[in-house]
């Protein structure tokens, strides 16, 4: 099929636009290719697609893990003075739940039917929307608003990232419905599996995110580090490196597939599986697991109840990463390494200053920090 003769996802009328690119003649991926077969083949006698099962099992296991640790997480979240932990936790829970819902619905709705195909596309785009919102929020909190530790600032950041993700997902949905990629068309069933908005869209977006994350990765070696309190935790940069490698792989796979090189579909499948099954657990491990796992975190902080009625400034500004101030909030624990606190504590001890340690919820269960003001005492030792 030549360029410009792309069929719609449910009809046969030609469209003036194609969502693929080829310098010569477009060649659709063969249905019996192993990397295409896994996208639509069903488990014998169960009529469940293998691809949905591959996505479901890791997400279901992670949800079980969250449920088993829910009570401990609830106590920790009640004990902390920082709402950013709750924001991260809610995003993680929403991501895993919506992913499981998509898999279950796809198992019971036939993608060959017109309604089923639309439902499957909407669910895929919805999952991508929540994952991308989390992805962008993590970066924004770390680089720009990580020191705005109040409920109102977190709401503003989440709202802004939601609009960005909505624009991305809406574009992906439009391309997927009206201009489906021929490489994801199942000739034998006259239907399309989800093609992520087409390889041209995926290639451009992957290149953009690759450049974005690469620039973040090199920030500590630039002069900008003197103006920003960059995250110091090594796990944060490992997280960024993971996204760099993932997006580079996606751009390579989608680029190869645009030129109808069949191996590109295998790369696309692998990156899709990794992103939709491992990204959410990675966010949890990088930004929440250490906080939920320790019994007595030695986090120095000065907490004042936030007032979001506009009468007072609701922003808690954290000091620069190189300063030795005892004014720390709990949100620093997400992005700043333990060595930051150790060095600060040592400096304050030598100077005769004092700190307050965030007590474990195991020892203060039932005690709320809401609407309390904790002032650093003088002439006392921790």
Automatic annotation (TrEMBL):
It is found in: Membrane. GO terms for cellular component: plasma membrane. It comes from the Eukaryota. The chain crosses the membrane at residues 48-68, 88-109, 121-145, 157-179, 199-224, 236-262, 274-294. InterPro entries: TPRA1/CAND2/CAND8 (IPR018781). Its main location: membrane. It is a multi-pass membrane protein. GO terms for molecular function: G protein-coupled receptor activity. Keywords: Membrane, Transmembrane, Transmembrane helix. Belongs to the UPF0359 family. This is Transmembrane protein adipocyte-associated 1 homolog.
């Amino acid at each position: 099929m030549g360029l410009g003769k792309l069929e719609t996802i449910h009809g046969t009328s030609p469209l003036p636009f194609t969502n693929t690119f080829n310098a010569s003649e477009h060649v659709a991926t063969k249905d019996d290719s192993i990397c295409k077969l896994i996208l639509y083949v069903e488990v014998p006698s169960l009529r469940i697609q293998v691809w949905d099962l591959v996505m479901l099992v890791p997400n279901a296991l992670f949800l079980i893990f969250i449920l088993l640790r829910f009570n401990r997480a609830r106590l920790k979240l009640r004990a902390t003075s920082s709402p950013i932990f709750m924001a991260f936790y809610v995003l993680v829970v929403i991501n895993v739940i919506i992913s499981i819902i998509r898999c279950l619905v796809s198992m019971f709705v036939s993608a060959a039917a017109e309604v089923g195909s639309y439902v499957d596309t909407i669910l895929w785009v919805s999952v991508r929307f929540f994952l991308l919102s989390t992805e962008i929020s993590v970066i924004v909190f770390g680089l720009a608003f990580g020191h705005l530790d109040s409920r109102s600032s977190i709401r503003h950041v989440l709202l802004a990232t939601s609009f960005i993700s909505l624009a991305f997902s809406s574009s992906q949905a439009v391309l997927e419905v009206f201009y489906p990629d021929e490489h994801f068309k199942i000739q034998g069933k006259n239907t399309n599996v989800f093609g992520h908005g087409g390889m041209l869209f995926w290639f451009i977006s992957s290149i953009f995110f690759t450049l974005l994350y690469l620039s973040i990765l090199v920030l500590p070696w630039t002069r900008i580090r003197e103006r920003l309190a960059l995250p110091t935790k090594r796990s944060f940069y490992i997280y960024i490196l993971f996204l760099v490698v993932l997006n580079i792989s996606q751009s390579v796979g989608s680029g190869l597939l645009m030129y109808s090189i069949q191996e590109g579909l295998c790369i696309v499948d692998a990156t899709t599986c990794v992103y939709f099954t491992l990204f959410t657990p990675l966010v949890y491990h990088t930004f929440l697991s250490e906080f939920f796992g320790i019994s007595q975190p030695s986090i120095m902080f000065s907490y004042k109840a936030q007032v979001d009625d506009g009468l007072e400034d609701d922003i808690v500004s954290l000091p620069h990463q190189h300063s030795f101030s005892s004014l720390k909030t709990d949100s620093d624990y997400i992005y700043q390494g333990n060595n930051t606190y150790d060095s600060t504590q040592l400096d304050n001890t030598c100077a005769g200053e004092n700190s307050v340690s965030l007590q474990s919820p195991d020892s203060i269960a039932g005690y709320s920090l809401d609407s309390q003001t904790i002032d650093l005492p003088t002439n006392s030792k921790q």
